[in-house]
Amino acid sequence: MNAKHPPLIDGLQFCNWSRAVFEQMHAAGMTAVHVTVAYHGGFRPTVDRIVDWQWRLREHADLIAPGESAADLAAAEASGRTAIVFGLQNPLPIEDDLGLVGVLYRLGIRFMQLTYNMQSLLGCGWMEPVDSGVTAMGRGVIREMNRLGMVVDLSHSGERTTLEAIAASRRPVTVSHANAATWKATLRNKSDTVLRALAESGGFLGLSCYPVHLADGPATTLESFCAMAARTAEIVGAANLGIGSDLCQDQPDSVLQWMRAGRWTRPAPAAPVPAFQPQPVWFRSNLDFPGLAAGLRAAGFSEAETAGILGGNWRRFMAASFAPEGSA
After folding, report:
1. Which of 4, 83, 88, 137 is within CB 3.0–4.6 Å of 76 for a Cys-Cys bond?
2. Backbone angles phi, psi at 246, to 5 degrees
3. Which structural domains are found in the chain, ordered by start?
4. What is the CA radius of gyration of the chain?
5. pLDDT tens for residues 98-121?
6. 33 in the Ramachandran plot: left (φ > 0), alpha (ψ -120 to 50) or beta?
7. From the centroid of its chain, how far is CA 207?
8. pLDDT below 70 — which residues of the chain?
């Protein structure tokens, strides 16, 4: 990795982690990657996943390094390694205990979603038929996350919950991996109302390369994706835009069933087993990340805007967000 090139940062991945994936990060010149530590499960299983990551960071220390602070990001970049930023796609790891937010922060967690697809103790996921908004516990957790320097992530939250969380947070929030719903009509993507509220609050949007979030699925072209990015930038501003690819490289299809169903339901015996859709040809691994630059420039972004979207904007947002409140 050449530490002198502009930063390349992916705001969300959930790969089947291996040295091969880390070598691809290195070859691509990735500065940092936000990795999903946990989807479902309580506090103790999440600690087990953090322990797994501690061993990975030790075993592959020539390629990856912790990314818990602005100093960590800078140190990893200077050493030519990829900073690994821990995040949770579900608040289940804090169980019903506000104090566990601080414990997980000390264990390295820097992003947490208020919900995954379903209702949580904090708010409502996008798949629920009725969005009841942010709960009383959710408001307390947002305050604690703000205080500590843990980013509020609303990628899977329903519309009302997303808007109420944006309003409740004292610090800018993120939708780390989603696209504009006007481009791909799904409640998992975000409406213009949400995008405007995100922009007005100084929040951050990571554009997703996950096929289900793309207008034409795996057949979506880079040109179409980058044209959507240009339209979205008109709402949120190019400086508040990055990539949160949602890359699930090398994961078996059985993981997708677990991601969607957790442990609270069982599919009917005759129900088809869900399978990951193929990635678009222009984004199959970290090796393809630098190639997004040509598409963004062709869509009308300047060199400086392109560099920001591919990593500079995330680096600024993370550096400001990971510090405890009032420490600047």
Report:
1. 83
2. 60, 35
3. 9-112+176-321 (3.20.20.140)
4. 18
5. 999 999 999 999 999 999 999 999
6. beta
7. 9
8. 1-4, 263-264, 266-271, 273, 328
